[in-house]
Amino acid sequence: MTDIVQLLVDEFTGFFGIRHWMEMFRSGDYQSLLTWKGLQSALSPLIPILLLIELVRGGLYRTFKVENYKMPFLIYIVNRFISRYLSIGAVAYCIGLFEGHGLLKADLTWYWFIYGYIVWELAHFVYHYLGHKVRLFWCLHSTHHAPEDMNLSVTYAHFFLEAPYADIIRTTICLLLGVTPPLLFLIMFIDGTWGAFIHVGENLLKDGRLGFLNKILLTPSHHRVHHAKNPLYMDTNFCNLLPIWDKAFGTLQQEEKELKIEYGISRQIRRGHFGDAYFGEFYALFIDIKRAPGLVNKFLYIIMPPGWSHTGDHKTAKVVRHTYLQQATGEPAAPVS
């Protein structure tokens, strides 16, 4: 019984990131706050506390719904037991394999930090773009898009293999382009914190545009658009903090005030159902592969975008968005591959 209680205490303190604070209070030594590692640990409770405030605020204003938070928390609990060390191992493996093969070496200076962040955003864009454009990768990423409400708990909703594959892609690109591990870890911390914050719900932040920052950064408004299944919003805003690559590749989409965001994925799923959110896309892919004629078509279902069909009747995000824009402008729809 004691072991179970201790496990629950460890999970609670781990989720809220308060172990470092507890150790400082116990010892009375706050010198660690003067180190970068100590500062990181001290800031780690930020997102869980914001989530708690979001929950309390939702309860006070009677907008809190259990089903909006149930599935992300179930996913978080499952992932805690399955993939605790997978992502760390993936990053360490890539560092050992590619660190010595970088085109250059970026130091911990302000100008190399800017360079490193631009490279990191490119690496994140590549991983995120592939997660939407390759059916197998979408099966991993779709769990994060399955919730039909936006709130801070969604940041914890991921398929357990997504983080390792994402970190392999991002770490490899960064290392080969000269971002050294110390600089990479600094960027990962900043980007991870911001990447969690942009999932903030309307209970806590009604207007996610953040004023003038909406023109400079990827804001919660941009990320709400990214999580939308509205045709106009599908497959947009792949960056995380700096929208430079979305601007460069034409995937930046602003939130339209008159268009209400509909969250979730285009496939009809059972609301709040853990199994459907976690494994549903794998099952749908299996059915498509099973029905497809010939090995080539079966393989294409794995690597082509979600919605691709061997019959030519494609329902990919590109096709759906193009058709919507054609209808919105009154122009005749042109064929889209």
TrEMBL record:
<dbReference type="Pfam" id="PF04116">
    <property type="entry name" value="FA_hydroxylase"/>
</dbReference>
<keyword id="KW-0443">Lipid metabolism</keyword>
<dbReference type="GO" id="GO:0005506">
    <property type="term" value="F:iron ion binding"/>
</dbReference>
<keyword id="KW-0812">Transmembrane</keyword>
<dbReference type="GO" id="GO:0006643">
    <property type="term" value="P:membrane lipid metabolic process"/>
</dbReference>
<keyword id="KW-0472">Membrane</keyword>
<feature type="domain" description="Fatty acid hydroxylase">
    <location>
        <begin position="114"/>
        <end position="251"/>
    </location>
</feature>
<dbReference type="InterPro" id="IPR006694">
    <property type="entry name" value="Fatty_acid_hydroxylase"/>
</dbReference>
<keyword id="KW-0560">Oxidoreductase</keyword>
<dbReference type="GO" id="GO:0012505">
    <property type="term" value="C:endomembrane system"/>
</dbReference>
<keyword id="KW-1133">Transmembrane helix</keyword>
<dbReference type="GO" id="GO:0016020">
    <property type="term" value="C:membrane"/>
</dbReference>
<feature type="transmembrane region" description="Helical">
    <location>
        <begin position="42"/>
        <end position="61"/>
    </location>
</feature>
<dbReference type="GO" id="GO:0008610">
    <property type="term" value="P:lipid biosynthetic process"/>
</dbReference>
<dbReference type="InterPro" id="IPR051689">
    <property type="entry name" value="Sterol_desaturase/TMEM195"/>
</dbReference>
<protein>
    <submittedName>
        <fullName>Fatty acid hydroxylase</fullName>
    </submittedName>
</protein>
<feature type="transmembrane region" description="Helical">
    <location>
        <begin position="73"/>
        <end position="98"/>
    </location>
</feature>
<feature type="transmembrane region" description="Helical">
    <location>
        <begin position="110"/>
        <end position="130"/>
    </location>
</feature>
<dbReference type="GO" id="GO:0050479">
    <property type="term" value="F:glyceryl-ether monooxygenase activity"/>
</dbReference>
